[in-house]
Design a protein that fits this description.
The protein is of the alpha+beta class. 63% of the residues lie in helices and 11% in strands. The chain starts with 11 loop residues before the first helix and ends with a strand.
Length: 408
């Protein structure tokens, strides 16, 4: 069975044009009812009215296929036919509404000059019909028939042109806003990568350069013991750099549909590669499990990478625990280590890891709190907004996921 080709969706101007076509479909039918109330309309007139209804219905149904292909002569023919039928039926029938809607539709479709000329011509013809009072249901001498209706016929075209320009301007503004948002997202991603490169790779690369100078100096002196030690440190540092590079790459290639616990596990594995560090992940969110939105998820993964990098580099810890929990309308990630800790209130010039994590949390609508004291380890607590959770199929008790066990 062959499928019908899909009809493309109209834009804002096309949707408004479709709304304007609705009274153009109903006006001929209502005119038939009005005519039958006083007279028996002729067969040819009924046929013309039915054809007008059918053509407008087809235009409504397949507007996107004919939009942009209408010649200005079609506008002239359409309004001329409407005026002829109006002259036959009379100014008191709904065909006046058909004429006004046709002016608005012309303004939405054609350029301003032909629309204004045709609208002026239609108004003049309306005046002639008003003078000769033709048709089965002639209009009276009331203000509505003599002033309001011809004014609407004259203003319908300019109104359609103004609406089209307004919608086009709105669409251009929306496009510019989308481009600005995309540029801002690209800039934000560049800043994120720059922060991670500055806080991790750049400093360690400088350390490798210093170690290479030490290695060269030891070889020049013939001190093989110092040379071996320097080479070993260079190897460990290079291994750490490889892990940090994987963290940065994962941040650029993150899959938003992957399980959050699995994503945290991979971040932790990359950040602690080559180090004797035991890392556990606990999911205590219960069932159903609320999850963060896209911005909160990215923030959680980035903060995890930075926090674990700080643990590896400064904390001298043996164990780290990552705990996911639900707290009201928030999802909380807590990263706790048993390292040497530090004085949170003291300044750390030149170190931007904590500042970067705090900035990330603020941008995603979350809150970051760091608790630590010398000799008592460190706890990083990140709370981000939660999206409504999906009902789980079955309930399971949360189990800790052991990533890597090191030898104390």
């Amino acid at each position: 069975m062959r499928r019908r080709p899909a009809v493309p969706e109209p834009d804002a101007v096309g949707r408004l044009a479709q709304y304007v076509l609705i009274p153009r479909i109903g006006a001929p039918g209502l005119s038939v009812v009005a005519l039958r109330a006083d007279h028996d309309p002729a067969g040819p007139l009924l046929g013309v009215l039915l054809v007008m209804m059918a053509l407008n219905y087809l235009a409504l149904r397949y507007w996107t296929l004919i939009e942009g292909r209408r010649h200005p002569l079609v506008l002239v023919l359409d309004q001329f036919t409407a005026l002829v039928v109006l002259g036959v039926t009379g100014l008191g029938t709904p065909m006046v509404l058909y004429l006004i809607a046709g002016g608005v539709l012309a303004g939405l479709t054609y350029r301003a000059r032909p629309v204004l000329l045709v609208g002026l011509g239609a108004t003049l013809v309306y005046g002639v019909l008003l003078v000769f009072r033709t048709g089965y249901v002639p209009g009276g001498n009331d203000f509505h028939t003599t002033i309001t209706l011809p004014a609407l016929v004259l203003a319908a075209g300019p109104a359609g042109v103004a609406l089209r320009r307004l919608l086009d301007e709105q669409e251009r503004t929306a496009t510019q806003l989308w481009r600005l948002r995309r540029s801002a997202a690209v800039r934000e991603e560049r800043l994120r990568v720059a922060r991670e490169l500055h806080d991790s790779l750049t400093k360690n690369l400088h350390g490798v350069w210093l170690l290479s100078r030490t290695l060269q100096s030891s070889l020049d002196r013939g001190d093989l013991t110092s040379a071996r030690e320097a080479a070993g440190v260079i190897g460990q540092t290079a291994e750490g750099l490889a892990g940090q590079s994987r963290v940065v790459i994962q941040g650029l290639r993150e899959n938003p549909h992957r399980n959050l616990v699995e994503a945290l596990r991979e971040r932790a594995t990359a950040a602690t590669a080559g180090h004797r560090l035991s890392v556990q992940v606990h999911d205590e969110r219960g069932t159903p499990r609320p999850g963060p939105d896209a911005a909160g998820r990215n923030t959680m993964l980035a903060v995890t990478s930075e926090a674990l990098h700080n643990v590896v580099k400064h904390a001298q810890a043996r164990r780290v625990t990552l705990t996911l929990a639900a707290a009201g309308a928030e999802v909380v990630l807590q990263i706790t280590d048993d390292g040497r800790g530090f004085d949170v209130s003291a300044g750390h010039p030149g170190h931007y890891g904590l500042v970067g994590m705090s900035e990330r949390a603020s941008r995603s609508g979350g809150k970051l709190k760091v608790l630590s004291a010398p000799g008592n380890g460190t706890t990083v607590r990140l709370a981000v907004p939660a999206r409504p959770p999906k009902p789980a199929k079955q309930s399971k008790q949360p189990k800790p996921v052991v990533l890597a066990e090191g030898v104390p």
